[in-house]
Amino acid sequence: MTRVKLIGLTGQSGAGKSTAAELFEENGMTVINADALVAEIYESSPACLKSVAASFGGDIINPDGTLNRKLLARRAFESKENTALLGAIVHPFVIAETLKILKTLSGTVVFDAPQLFESNMDAVCDVIVSVTADEGVRAGRIIERDGLTREQARERISAQHSEEFFRSHSDYILENNGNIARFKAQTSALIEKIQAGVM
């Protein structure tokens, strides 16, 4: 990992982190997507899947052996305790896979991880960038993106850290309250700073 400058990219659900990740990638940075790693781990690691099922119910595994993602998400976001429980099971698998990937890379790498702090991966990052947005904006995006009710969206939001937490634990904040041109401009300016080494 000594050859890598690691940028931790995180933020609240519905804030627009994926858009920021795309911009980092378009500017030549390698992006490791933690959510994609989790999906791969659920498919490739029976041990992880069994541990999750033991805590969240055997019915989260479909008859064909795959994960019922919507059911797991609903249960995991019912409370902060459930969210933390799922993280405690999955994070060690994600960390191991991420560190393995980082050994093969060089230059600037972006670790796109909604649970960056919960997994303690922030400790190995050189810079932390968080994407934030007002709660009402995030709720609307979550409802549209995931097909949830407003109550379910609120549950998901309440199971996560507050905006104050992200602000106090990050080196940079990107605000995304709906003006996409402004958000892209902020993100591009930050990317330029990172690439120039002015951080």
Structure description:
By secondary structure, the protein is of the alpha/beta class. The protein has a single domain, classed as P-loop containing nucleotide triphosphate hydrolases (Rossmann fold). It is built from nine helices and five strands.
Structure, briefly:
The chain is an alpha/beta fold and 199 residues long.
Secondary structure: elements and pairs:
Layout: E1 4-11, H1 17-26, E2 30-33, H2 34-44, H3 46-56, H4 69-76, H5 80-102, E3 107-112, E4 127-132, H6 135-146, H7 150-158, H8 163-168, E5 172-175, H9 180-196
Parallel strand pairs: 1-3, 1-4, 2-3, 4-5
Task: Give structural attributes.
199 residues, alpha/beta, Rossmann fold, 14% strand
| Tally of DSSP β-strands | 5
Strand order of the largest sheet: 2-3-1-4-5
CA-atom Rg in angstroms: 17 Å
CATH class: Alpha Beta
**Count, helices:** 9
Q: Which geometry do the CA atoms define?
A: globular
Q: How helical, in percent, are the residues?
A: 40-55%
- Distance between the terminal alpha carbons, to the nearest Å? 19 Å
Strand content: 5-15%
What's the structural domain tally?
A: 1
CATH superfamily: P-loop containing nucleotide triphosphate hydrolases
Mean pLDDT: 92
Q: Main β-sheet: number of strands, strand sense, barrel status?
A: 5 strands, parallel
As residue ranges, the low-confidence spans are: none
Coarse structural class: alpha/beta
Helix and strand pattern:
EHEHHHHEEHHHEH
Tell me the CATH topology: Rossmann fold
* CATH architecture term: 3-Layer(aba) Sandwich
